[in-house]
Amino acid sequence: MTPQIKRIRRMEQALNRSAAALASLSEALEKYEAVKSSLAALQEYYSGPIWRRDFEDDSKGLIPKELPRGVLSEDALYDLLTENDRLMQQLRALAKESPLPDRPG
Q1: Element (H, E) at 33
Q2: Among 3, 29, 77, 101, which one has the highest count of C-beta atoms within 10 angstroms of its own C-beta?
Q3: Each residue of 23-49: b (16+ CB within 10 Å) or e?
Q4: 99 torsion bin: left (phi>0), alpha (psi -120 to 50), beta (else)
Q5: What digits encode the pLDDT tens for the residues 46-75?
Q6: How crowded is residue 88: how many other Cβ atoms within 10 Å of its Cβ?
Q7: Taking the alpha carbons of 70, 71, 72, 75 in that order, is the dihedral positive or negative?
Q8: What is the pLDDT of residues 72-85, one digit of tens each?
Q9: What is the CA radius of gyration of the chain?
């Protein structure tokens, strides 16, 4: 196999991997954009007094047991908001990196 054929195959693989990754990233960003206001609402709820009251009422058995209440789990909400912060830091760091070199042509 010639070096030229090897190079073209390697670049074809790079093209396919990159196209798939960019498509996934684009889809993920669209999904994130759709829930951004929900994340802000969760942050406000968790950091305010209403969440604490709901949490305490659940601990006292005042919230119906059949009601889904994962939002009252300290770990679930804290972990979600912490992961959001971590991902935002990662995106900011990626955005600060040097851009790709100019394209030929």
Answers
A1: helix 3-47
A2: 77
A3: eeeeeeeeeeeeeeeeeeebeeebeee
A4: beta
A5: 999 999 999 999 999 999 999 999 999 889
A6: 11
A7: positive
A8: 988 999 999 999 99
A9: 23
